[in-house]
Design a protein that fits this description.
By secondary structure, this protein is of the alpha+beta class. It has 3 helices and 5 strands, in the order βααββββα.
Length: about 140
């Protein structure tokens, strides 16, 4: 699967008292990009819950903050599948300033788990989703 990109604009509410993006908001941007990535594959998370009783939850997140984003910046948030397990995906994500070749502002390795909504126990990722995720180790 090709690298997925989603763009977002930094609003005043995303910044802290010194005018840079508050650190936790990078995780929000990454979450939104993952949701849009799933949507681009044809999967709505509310339908997965209603029809299959599953949801995806963050199992772990390791984030590096490299450079600040500021109010009104246009950002590109990427999603790249690095590892596909039976019930989990390991994703590499990055937040970059649009048009800036200086490299990422923030990077993250995010592991998401497919779980049964009723019990929160791990469930195999449905084949319909796995078929859409190709060329992954």
């Amino acid at each position: 699967m090709a690298l997925f990109r989603w763009d977002v604009r930094v609003y005043y509410e995303d910044t802290d008292s010194v005018g840079v993006v508050y650190y936790a908001n990078y995780l929000r941007f990454m979450e939104r990009a993952r949701t849009e990535w799933m949507r681009s594959l044809g999967f709505e998370q509310d339908r997965l819950l209603a029809e299959q009783g599953i949801l995806f939850a963050v199992r772990s997140a390791c984030v590096d903050y490299l450079r600040p984003a500021r109010f009104n910046d246009r950002l590109d948030v990427t999603v790249d599948v690095r590892r596909r397990g039976r019930a989990s995906l390991t994703l590499e994500q990055a937040v970059l300033r649009h048009g800036d070749s200086a490299g990422p502002l923030c990077t993250g390795t995010i592991r998401i788990a497919c779980i049964e909504a009723a019990t929160f126990s791990p469930q195999p990722i449905p084949d319909t989703i796995l078929k859409e995720i190709v060329n992954v180790g």
